[in-house]
């Protein structure tokens, strides 16, 4: 498979054994670790980190769920058990800066861990990409051209409204010279994909429509070639929606990290 | 003299009754648990000025925002006129500020234009609700009293403004006729057009002028006392509600300190938790919510901006964030009445969950924060939904089966799905 990595992904344990510290910890998240589609995004984030020569590491098998779905579902015990265990690991490795592949992990570690003893600089991978572009370390060249292609971006709730990150993902897309088209409900008025608040793990309540269908209809109205996502849960919901609308041949759903990696031929 | 005494009696009774009811509302809000919302006073003040006074969040929808701004400005500014009415009423004077000359004329002219604006604004609001029947104003929770409440408010405001303008028209006509006591003051750009509709006899005009004057001021005291029973309470509560609103990122849910102590004790046997306060996890009833949640409920004016952006509601689910707020207020009022009757508010066999808000509603929420973003006065329905979920899960272990399975997976293998922790890094190795 072309997505296979031609380099080793360093773990914190390995770095510690060598007496080294990374510049940034890549928090992969459960979806990024286990979900087949999200794994691609995870590998692409690693490719970007590797490409720019940033010293990074992952926790590997020492990572565990942040506790986000437990907290949103109302199980504060389980959340805090997870949080404190993770904080112990992170603090033991003296972690200062974290990049996450998922807005839910991002929100939880950034906002809810400090009160439990875990204070880190936390950024989402779209912010990392924006920073790298701003610093001139990452360009959109040497790979697939997105020039003039119609891309619409779906704001994940926990990145957008939850933490007011609206610009970073758009900046990353602007670097592609693509044609960015906004949906009617975007940014602070963005419509949820339907997966948040632990909905990902249950059947929806009775209604007249699934939320991801409502969203995908709106996305398709912009007649995009690519629907850009930046959350593994949104990715699942949007892809399901595109398939149900029989549009999976015409419209790709891609994470911003994937788009960036492709544009750079990584 | 008799009229002056009558006026003072009505004014005192109006203010006294309102204070009595307001005290009860504050008592009800204090049923809620403590919440620390006094940090960062400067930022809080700025939020209040921007969101409540400046109505910045209203302008996301420009048409109602514009109409609302006129009604709001009219309401606030015409109150200067009420001050004059109060002084006239107490001392038996007539247009006591008239001595200000040109400034007075300017003020009265502005009030008249605003009064017309309020009149038209309210008329358009009534049309939007009752003739165009905007979807935002419908929904299961908007039947019966809430629907009437909205119309009563609008009709009352129209009547008050009509009385104000007719009073001025009669006054202007009396002034033109040179009637005693009616010195020539004021400028009447709007009510001059009503003058021809009024009778020409001095007696009839005085009756109309006095009648409207009394109707206007008694109406205002009546309206003041209507507030505690109405969604219109927002004209007062919008200010404290925005001042005490959440300043943290919307995505952040509060960490429960009571749980932190227990978890710390579990992970570290040497940790001795501080004396735990008695109470349950999450909220079964209104007394398990914080005073901020309860103040939110009294502040809600049922505009439905939250519900109209809620992804669950849009796709036909039962959940409506507006209903969450209305249910919370209804239950709190019921508890308050129970306290008045028996001293105990909670032995009626009812609770906020199940008696008012169903499980189906709380589990339909995606926690997307569209509702909190949309609220023009920073009400937070999501905080209440979260507390109800916490109660259902931690006190009752009653969650949908698939949620329980997900929680079990996190507990057993550190991921919401059933995968082995040993396989966590496979993505880096597999082809």
Report on the structure:
- The complex is a heterodimer of chains A (about 270) and B (about 425).
- By secondary structure, chain A is α/β, with parallel strands linked by helices.
- Chain A has two domains: about 10-130, Rossmann fold, CATH 3.40.50; about 140-265, Rossmann fold (3-Layer(aba) Sandwich), CATH 3.40.50.2300.
- Chain A has helices at about 10-15, 30-35, 35-50, 70-75, 75-90, 105-110, 125-135, 165-175, 210-220, 230-245, 255-265, and strands spanning about 25, 55-60, 95-100, 120-125, 150-155, 180, 225-230, 250-255.
- Helix content of chain B is about 60%, strand content about 0%.
- In chain B, helix 1 (about 1-30) packs across helix 3 and helix 9 (about 290-300) packs across helix 12.
- The mean pLDDT of chain B is about 95.
- At the A-B interface, helix 2, helix 3, helix 4, helix 5 and helix 6 of A face helix 8, helix 11, helix 16, helix 17 and helix 18 of B.
Portion in beta strands of chain A: 5-15%
Total E-strand runs of chain A: 8
Proportion of residues in β-strands of chain B? under 5%
Can you list the strand order of the major beta sheet of chain A? 2-1-3-4
Q: Strands, helices and their partners?
A:
The complex is a heterodimer of chains A (266) and B (431).
Chain A (H helix, E strand, L loop, with lengths): L11 H6 L6 E4 L2 H5 L1 H16 L4 E3 L9 H6 L2 H17 L4 E4 L2 H10 L8 E4 H10 L15 E4 L13 H8 L4 E2 L30 H11 L4 E4 L2 H13 L7 E4 H8 L3
Parallel strand pairs in A: 1-2, 1-3, 3-4, 5-6, 5-7, 7-8
Helix pairs in contact in A: 3-11, 7-8, 9-10
Chain B lengths: L1 H28 L11 H13 L8 H30 L10 H29 L14 H33 L24 H25 L7 H10 L13 H11 L23 H9 L5 H5 L1 H4 L6 H22 L9 H5 L2 H5 L6 H5 L6 H15 L5 H13 L12 H4 L2
Helix pairs in contact in B: 1-3, 1-6, 1-12, 2-7, 3-4, 4-5, 5-6, 7-9, 9-12, 12-16
Keywords (chain A): 4Fe-4S, Iron, Iron-sulfur, Metal-binding, Oxidoreductase
GO molecular function (chain A): 4 iron, 4 sulfur cluster binding; metal ion binding; oxidoreductase activity
Protein name (chain A): Cysteine-rich domain-containing protein
């Amino acid at each position: 498979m072309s997505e296979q990595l031609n380099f080793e992904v360093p773990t914190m344990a390995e770095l510690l054994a060598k007496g080294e510290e990374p510049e940034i910890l890549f928090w992969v998240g459960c979806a990024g670790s286990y979900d087949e589609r999200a794994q691609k995004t995870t590998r692409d984030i690693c490719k970007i980190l590797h490409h720019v020569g940033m010293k990074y590491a992952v926790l590997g098998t020492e990572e565990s769920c942040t506790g986000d779905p437990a907290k949103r579902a109302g199980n504060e015990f389980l959340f805090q058990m997870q949080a404190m265990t993770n904080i112990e690991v992170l603090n033991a490795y003296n972690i200062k800066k974290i990049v996450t592949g998922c807005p839910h992990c991002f929100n939880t570690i950034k906002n809810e861990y400090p009160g439990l003893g875990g204070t880190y600089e936390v950024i989402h991978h779209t912010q990392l990409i924006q920073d790298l572009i701003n610093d001139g370390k990452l360009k959109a060249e040497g790979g697939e051209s997105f020039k003039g292609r119609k891309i619409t971006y779906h704001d994940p709730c926990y990145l957008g409204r939850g933490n007011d990150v609206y610009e970073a993902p758009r900046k990353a897309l602007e670097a592609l010279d693509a044609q960015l088209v906004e949906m009617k409900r975007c940014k602070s008025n963005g419509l949820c994909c339907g997966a948040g608040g632990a909905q990902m793990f249950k059947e929806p309540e009775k209604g007249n429509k699934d939320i991801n269908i409502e969203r995908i209809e709106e996305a398709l109205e912009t007649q995009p070639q690519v629907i850009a996502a930046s959350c593994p849960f949104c990715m699942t919901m949007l892809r399901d929606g595109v398939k149900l609308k029989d549009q999976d041949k015409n419209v790709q759903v891609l994470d911003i990290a994937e788009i960036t990696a492709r544009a750079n031929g990584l | 003299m008799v009229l002056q005494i009558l006026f003072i009696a009505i004014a005192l009774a109006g203010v006294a009754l309102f204070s009595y009811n307001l005290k009860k509302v504050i008592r009800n809000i204090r049923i809620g648990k403590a919440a620390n919302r006094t940090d960062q006073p400067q930022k809080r003040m700025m939020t209040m000025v921007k969101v409540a006074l400046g109505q910045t969040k209203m302008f996301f929808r420009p048409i109602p925002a514009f109409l609302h701004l006129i009604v709001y400005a009219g309401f606030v500014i015409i109150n200067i006129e009420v001050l004059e009415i109060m002084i006239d009423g107490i001392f038996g004077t007539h247009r006591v500020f008239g001595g200000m000359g040109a400034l007075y004329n300017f003020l009265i002219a502005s009030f008249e234009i605003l009064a017309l604006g309020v009149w038209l604004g309210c008329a358009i609001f009534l049309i939007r609700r009752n003739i165009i029947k905007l979807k935002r104003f419908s929904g299961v929770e908007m039947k019966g009293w809430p629907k009437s409440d909205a119309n009563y408010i609008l009709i009352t405001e129209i009547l008050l403004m009509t009385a104000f303008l007719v009073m001025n028209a009669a006054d202007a006509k009396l002034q033109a006729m040179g009637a005693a006591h009616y010195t020539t003051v004021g400028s009447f750009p709007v009510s001059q057009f009503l003058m021809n509709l009024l009778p020409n006899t001095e007696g009839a005009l005085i009756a109309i002028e006095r009648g409207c004057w009394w109707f206007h001021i008694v109406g205002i005291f009546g309206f003041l006392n209507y507030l505690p029973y109405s969604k219109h309470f927002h004209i007062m509560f919008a200010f404290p509600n925005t001042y005490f609103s959440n300043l943290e990122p919307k995505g952040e849910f509060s960490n429960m300190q009571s749980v932190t102590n227990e978890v710390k004790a579990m992970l570290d046997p040497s940790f001795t938790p501080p004396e735990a306060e008695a109470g349950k996890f999450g909220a079964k009833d209104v007394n398990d919510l914080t005073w901020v949640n309860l103040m939110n409920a009294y502040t809600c004016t049922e505009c439905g901006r939250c519900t109209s952006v809620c992804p669950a509601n849009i796709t036909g689910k039962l959940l409506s964030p507006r209903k969450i707020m209305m249910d919370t207020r209804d239950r709190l009022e019921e508890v308050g009445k129970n306290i008045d009757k028996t001293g105990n508010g909670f032995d009626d066999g009812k609770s906020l969950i199940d008696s008012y808000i169903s499980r189906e509603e709380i589990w339909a929420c995606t926690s997307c924060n569209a509702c909190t973003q949309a609220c023009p006065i920073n009400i937070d329905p999501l905080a209440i939904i979260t507390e109800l979920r916490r109660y259902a899960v931690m006190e009752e272990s009653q969650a949908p089966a698939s949620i329980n399975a997900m929680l079990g997976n996190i507990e057993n293998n550190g991921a919401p799905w059933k995968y082995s922790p040993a396989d966590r890094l496979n993505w880096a190795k597999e082809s």
